[in-house]
Design brief:
By secondary structure, this protein is an alpha+beta fold. The protein has one domain. It has four helices and six strands, in the order βαββββααβα. Strands 1-3-4-5 form a four-stranded mixed sheet, with helices on one face. A two-stranded antiparallel sheet has the order 2-6. β4 and β5 form a beta hairpin. α1 packs antiparallel against α4 and α2 runs antiparallel to α3.
Length: 170
């Protein structure tokens, strides 16, 4: 689930208040994750906090803290101020994401296996498919958040990585 740069440029330049300054994941149901997944989680969070665009729809002022969790087949976006005052919870059904996440996991597994023994051309081919699925998941996320939270493409990519991490059960 590597996070790579590239893709579209930011749709709008975020002001200092339209950003995430903290993000946490609900790890209560996770038993154990591989070192590769933990690395991807850490990189996605680091990159997200370094550069992001996060505009909750409404009369809100950031910067924001975000807690992501999954409950009852829904992705919960608990948005708070830096002082931990609640600004609300955005709920997204997970069903629209299931296929792309499943396909993404399958290609990631193939990619991690290939980097051990496959030729550079084969690895590059698998990686292109992996990035394509990651882009698909990122665009789907932006579509599903429309009218709730505006995010740019790179922010969506990093958040999609974190959604995939939340799907991994021990």
């Amino acid at each position: 689930m590597a996070e790579e740069s590239g893709g579209e440029a930011a749709d709008k330049a975020p002001g200092p208040s339209q950003k995430l300054t903290d993000i946490t994941l609900d790890d209560s149901s996770v038993v154990r994750r591989s070192p590769e997944v933990e690395h991807e989680r850490a990189v996605a969070i680091y990159d997200l906090l370094e550069e992001n665009s996060f505009f909750p729809v409404g009369d809100f002022s950031g910067p924001y803290h975000l807690h992501l969790s999954i409950a009852e087949n829904r992705l919960l976006w608990d948005i708070r101020t830096e002082q931990q005052d609640s600004l609300g919870v955005v709920t997204l059904p997970l069903t629209p994401f299931r296929r792309v996440i499943k396909d993404y996991f399958t290609v990631c597994e193939t990619y991690y296996d290939a980097i051990k023994t496959a030729s550079p051309a084969k690895i590059e081919s698998i990686d292109m498919g992996r990035r394509g699925l990651h882009n698909d998941g990122s665009e789907l996320l932006r579509e599903r958040l429309e009218g709730k939270i505006e995010i740019d493409f790179q922010t969506a990519r990093r958040l999609f990585t974190l959604i995939c991490v939340l799907h991994i059960r021990g």
